[in-house]
Amino acid sequence: MTAPEVATRSVEPTQPAVSVTDLEIQIAASSTPVVSDVTFDIAAGEILGLVGESGSGKTTVGLALLGHARRGLRIAGGPVLLGGRNILGLGDEQLRRLRGEAVSYVPQDPASSLNPALRIGLQLREVLEAHVRHRDGGQVDERVAEMMREVALPDDRKFLRRYPHELSGGQQQRVGLAMAFANRPSLIVLDEPTTGLDVTTQAHVLTTVRELAGLHNVAALYVSHDLAVVAAVAKRVAVMYAGRIVELGTSEALFSAAGHPYTRRLIGAIPRLTGGRTLVGIPGHAASPGSRPPGCAFAPRCNLRIERCDEEIPALRLVSSDHQARCIRAEEVLATEQRRAGDPIEQPAAAEPAAALRLENVIAMYGQQEVVHSVSLQLAAHECLALVGESGSGKTTIARAIAGLHHNWTGKITLGDQPLDASARRRSAEVRRSIQYIFQNPYGSLNPRKSIGEIIEQPLRIFGTASGGEASRRVAEMLERVALTAGYAARYPDQLSGGERQRVAIARALVCDPAVLVCDEVTSALDVSVQAAIVELLGNLQRDLGLSMLFITHNLPLVRSIAQRVAVLHQGTIAELGDVSQVLGTPEQPYTRQLISDTPSLEVAAAEVGLAEPEIP
Amino acid sequence: MITGTGTTASPAEVATPPVRATSLLRRSLRLWRTRIGVLLVGVLVLLAIIGPYVAPYGPSTPVGVPNSGPGGKAVLGTDYLGQDVLTRFLYGGRSILATALIATAIGLIVGVAIGLIAAYSRNALDDVLMRIMDVILAFPQIMFALVAVAVVGPQAWVIVLAIALTTVPRAARVARGAALPVVERDFVACSEAMGVPRWRIVLGDLLPNTLGPLMVEASLRTTYSISVIAALAYLGLSPNPNSPNWGTMIQQNQIVLATQPWGAVMPIIAIALLTMGTGLIGDGIARTAAGIDRARSAE
């Protein structure tokens, strides 16, 4: 990377670049607060991480820094000072000029933020020309090339003439970053810019963000649900819960000794690469705006709750220098040792030799393209085998082939000693009942027009296991098993949270006593605390029911918490296969080592942030 | 309502009827455009149904001098044969509405079935079905009806079938388009992995999730059917040219539009309001389904 011009803006060292005070955002129609009492500063060149689970209001806060409120919401309190100027009082025209010039935004999905019909070079030029009138085109070309070099993309004419769809997801997001930094704004809001990217790509993007923010002295707000990612990119982190900041401090302080029970539980829910531990989810779910309790919003889910917690909303107060927490018992919380995670997983005695499912030389095609090259795998009875790989590695194709949903493959898949037909329709009912599949996205796998009861009952009816009252009884029983109540049977999927939906999907898969359970990225659409609870549930069910489980994921640390053996899939072939502790502890293949080192984790985050100073060549 | 899987209804299912399409209708009623549409259609349908019972005279009874203006025994004057305009107007809505509704219903059921099957098959059958639809689509609706009536004769069933047949490809296209994204969703794959019969997937998974666009299409197609049938009647192609019918009335009385306008103007207003009403309902449902005006309708 060549040295770009040194930032010319002079920022007083004492004055923060961005200062948010008592930000309140309400639902316009009912004046119900969605976000309240949000106060924080970001210094120039600093990245502040804003962490929260879905519904916590983190994106709403991020957008408020651009002076924007989503439809139906209203910014009711402030100010949001940007270089001393309150942006909440600006008119539309002033705001328009502000955005892109002084503030910019990097959205979650890079593909949707780029115009698919325009070449990326043109789009980059537009960003520059929208705000500054450049006299000659050569000057603009020079700046565009410089922007590309900054984000480590080729700056040649050929690359700039590409369309967005000709770029990979990581490249698209880097173009997004280049556009965000183009006019040297003083603040950048990044809204989960690496969600949906592979770990390797994510690692590159995170490095780019860190370098650019430091290099150009830009204040950045990094919004994410992923604590490990935030730990890797930000020195200071604010944790949001139910519309309020519950803890604000340096990432080291937060991750080693958090002062708020919620932060502690959240950290406990993160899967770790080191040491196989069961994950501990947080029971219950966050109250939605309008139904939040009068006292501490986390109190109903907190195991340290005392009477005083319900009386009034605790203030965000200093618990040590540069570390604030919104908990009346913060000192007590701090005094206890941070529990890193749950108990170590008891490894069951050596898996029984009988293979429940066997794949032999499976070659799967997508049209003319071979995406899985001769994969052989054995899933022993009662074991959980994790299949790990990045997107495009063929892991979902393998899973779908097992379930009879992907038909274009050759080789042999046997259940017990019975070879399986490619199409689920041509398999016997007994085979279809024995292999159950849980889909990645609980929002897509439940028919929105059917009640939960009907959804779970469907397999019973199809396989003729039970009907009428007996079926209703089994549905109720299954709902209890997945930690829901029988009352859910009358509800519809859109009345359920993501975690609850995934529990319903699990109940549907298990209601007819399958032998093999295929879980395809079942937690990737869920929050960490919900993910932990689902993994906990799946692990328990697998042990209790003696299931053979194929657990497909891109999340390497998660493997530790659920599987006994792991297969690492790379471009359609198995790169490494073995016991979890062996593969993740002492990986033999360079690809596995690369994957492990690119995975953001809290353990290495502290060290990385220390090294995060931009290197100016 | 169709849920496709309600074959073994347990008491629990009966207690919570899984009818969700009504909620879309109900939500769309918060919009003024839908309310106006429902009001217009309601009034005109009511008029067509109870009209004959409240009409002052028989439909073919001469009550005065032909083409005389309003006043005396005839509130809206008389038509070209001296029959009461108000009476003929009150009688004239039934046949148009009945033909239009039956024709549209037949066309929609067949068309939606073809569209869903095409979308779900994802193979050559899809192409074959849709190309056949394209061929039918190539004939303009009014021309097709004219040819059918000219060949077979102006019987009611010919008109109904002609309109139904030309509605089929249009409904099929919409149904297929609405079902294509649904086919890709995981709950369909889930049903397939379980081995749910294809017809059940079409009825239970696809149809309920395409009802929104289909309801819009239903109201639109009704609108077009009404205007086509009125146009046919105007051209004299109705089962009985002497029976009271809004389309025929316009044609019969247009010559004296300047001196005794009511004979032509009343049916024109009725047809215009009816088509506007069905159009507004369709638009309201579409807007509700798309989430437009959500903030406004919430108030």
Report on the structure:
The complex is a heterodimer of chains A (617) and B (299). With 617 residues, chain A is an alpha/beta fold. Chain A folds into 3 domains: 18-102 and 185-335, Rossmann fold; 116-182; 355-452 and 496-586, 3-Layer(aba) Sandwich (Rossmann fold), CATH 3.40.50. An 8-stranded mixed beta sheet of chain A has the order 7-8-9-3-10-11-13-12, sandwiched between helices. In chain A, strands 19-20-21-16-22-23 form a 6-stranded mixed beta sheet, sandwiched between helices. In chain A, strand 22 and strand 23 form a beta hairpin. In chain B, helix 3 (32-54) packs across helix 4, helix 8 (156-183) packs antiparallel against helix 11 and helix 11 runs antiparallel to helix 13. With 299 residues, chain B is an all-alpha fold. Chain B has helices at residues 11-15, 21-28, 32-54, 85-91, 93-121, 124-137, 141-152, 156-183, 186-194, 198-206, 211-234, 246-253, 262-290, 294-298. Chain B has a domain at 94-298: MetI-like (MetI-like fold), CATH 1.10.3720.10. Chain B is elongated and about 75 Å long. The model of chain B is unreliable at 1-21 and 294-299 (pLDDT under 50).
**Residues in helix, % of chain B:** over 70%
Which chain pair has the greatest contact? A-B, 43 and 29 residues
Architecture of the largest domain in chain A in CATH?
3-Layer(aba) Sandwich
What structural class results from the helix and strand content of chain B? Answer: mainly alpha
Percent of sequence in beta strands of chain B:
under 5%
Q: What is the number of helices of chain B?
A: 14
Count of DSSP H/I helices of chain A: 22
Fraction of residues of chain A in helices? Answer: 25-40%
Please report which band the strand proportion of chain A falls in: under 5%, 5-15%, 15-25%, 25-35%, 35-45% or over 45%: 15-25%
Instruction: Compute the average pLDDT of chain A.
Output: 82
Topology, number of strands of chain A: 23
Instruction: Give the SSE order of chain B as H and E letters.
Output: HHHHHHHHHHHHHH
Poorly predicted runs of chain A are: 1-12, 606-617
Give the oligomeric state of the chains in this entry, treating copies of one chain as homo and distinct chains as hetero.
heterodimer
Global morphology of chain A = globular
Alpha-carbon distance between the two ends of chain B: 29 Å
